């Protein structure tokens, strides 16, 4: 699993296509995704089963998420540029992200017969709309699985990048990284709650999202749809999200990942990455929405630093042979990411509270849980993700309706 020379679209966390595709993969990015998935899994597992081992000088889960977002920023815009085809890009994204996502959502609803759905999930149609678009966090609604919140920012990034690509300004990644970092600081100072409240952002965004997606895929009114969707994503990010400064900071991190790729290609410098890093680090310092332990300066700075060092270290080692198991974890990381939290809740409901049990019991239960998650992730990756990715690639190769009607 050594160095390869070309890339495939790799998202956060639901990134890449099958390892069996003709297009070679960047193994170091898979390794990073594997690290990120394990970090998030441990962040959720340790408080319930081995609380003594949970670190508090940094946040394991946010560390994993930041690694995911850097990977996504590094590869997604370049993937769209290489394709040069908005329609194919979105078909690929839909068939990459939605199958296992919908399967997990359905499984949680079935589990609700025995175990209540999370309290943060509204019991109305606004929740259906928010889950359908994946824009949960930016319309201030909870997801059926706790980890689904990050997919909101992944989707916002896709929509914004598409609009920038269609507008021909997509190569100014460093400027966007710094800009979103500045927005994060200002939002932290001025905004303490969503300005667009109630269920209607979920309803409106659902209608606009699917109408716009239909245009992007069909090719009809594609440019206008890209602009509308990008603008909607930004409005939701800043004015309707749970934590506006965090949403802007996440976009800054993702565009920093893109700026790193531009620098690698000789198309930009690293100073925007440094500037964006400083702004993101400072964003929660004076924010009115910074009451969690992990956004205090010490843990927040440490979390950011570890994510950055991890990404830089993997990038420095990209010419070397990487551990096969770590790369394999990256291949199944999207399944790990979505499956583990519902399974963790189910396991806790069955076995009860083991925080006061002996270390042998805690370790045995934790190891068994991880093995079950890895086994199920292997199955869902092989029998759900890969077949749907192949179907998406076949559909993406077919001409759109407008191309059939108006051949060139």
TrEMBL record:
Domain Acyltransferase: from-to ranges: 27-377
Domain of life where this protein originates: Bacteria
Keyword tags: Acyltransferase, Membrane, Transferase, Transmembrane, Transmembrane helix
Signal peptide: none
GO molecular function: acyltransferase activity
Pfam family for this entry, one: Acyl_transf_3
TM annotation in the entry: 56-76, 97-115, 151-169, 175-196, 227-256, 268-286, 298-318, 325-343, 363-384
PANTHER family in the record: ACETYLTRANSFERASE, BLR2367 PROTEIN
Name this protein carries in UniProt: Acyltransferase
Organism: Streptosporangium oxazolinicum
């Amino acid at each position: 699993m050594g160095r390869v020379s070309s890339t495939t679209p790799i998202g956060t966390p639901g990134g890449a296509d099958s390892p069996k595709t003709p297009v070679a993969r960047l193994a170091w990015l898979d390794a990073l995704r594997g690290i990120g998935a394990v970090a998030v899994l441990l962040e959720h597992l340790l408080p319930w089963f081995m609380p003594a081992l949970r670190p508090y000088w940094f946040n394991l889960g946010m560390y994993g998420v930041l690694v995911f977002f850097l990977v996504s920023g590094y590869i997604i815009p370049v993937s769209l540029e290489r394709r040069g085809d908005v329609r194919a890009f979105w078909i690929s994204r839909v068939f990459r992200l939605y199958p296992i996502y919908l399967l997990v959502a359905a499984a949680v609803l079935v589990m609700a017969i025995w175990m209540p759905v999370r309290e943060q999930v509204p019991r109305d149609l606004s929740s259906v709309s928010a889950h359908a678009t994946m824009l949960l966090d930016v319309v201030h609604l909870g997801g059926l699985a706790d980890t689904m919140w990050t997919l909101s920012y992944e989707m916002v990034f896709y929509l914004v990048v598409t609009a920038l690509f269609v507008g021909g300004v997509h190569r100014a990644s460093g400027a966007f990284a710094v800009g979103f970092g500045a927005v994060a600081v200002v939002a932290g100072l001025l905004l303490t709650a969503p300005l667009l409240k109630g269920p209607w952002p979920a309803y409106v965004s659902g209608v606009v999202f699917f109408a716009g997606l239909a245009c992007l895929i069909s090719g009809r009114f594609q440019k206008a749809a890209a602009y509308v969707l990008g603008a909607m994503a930004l409005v939701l990010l800043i004015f309707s999200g749970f934590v506006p400064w965090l949403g802007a900071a996440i976009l800054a991190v993702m565009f920093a990942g893109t700026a790193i790729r531009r620098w690698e290609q000789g198309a930009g410098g690293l100073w925007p990455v440094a500037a964006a890093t400083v702004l993101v680090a400072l964003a929660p310092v004076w924010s009115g929405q910074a009451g969690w332990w992990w956004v205090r300066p010490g843990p927040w700075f440490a979390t950011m630093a570890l994510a950055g060092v991890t990404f830089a270290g993997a990038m420095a080692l990209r010419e070397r042979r990487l551990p096969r198991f770590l790369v394999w974890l990256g291949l199944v990381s999207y399944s790990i990411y979505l499956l583990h939290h519902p399974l963790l809740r189910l396991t806790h409901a069955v076995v009860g509270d083991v925080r006061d049990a002996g270390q042998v019991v805690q370790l045995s239960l934790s190891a068994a849980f991880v093995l079950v998650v890895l086994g199920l992730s292997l199955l869902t990756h092989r029998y759900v993700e890969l077949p749907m990715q192949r179907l998406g690639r076949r559909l993406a190769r077919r001409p759109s309706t407008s191309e059939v009607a108006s051949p060139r």
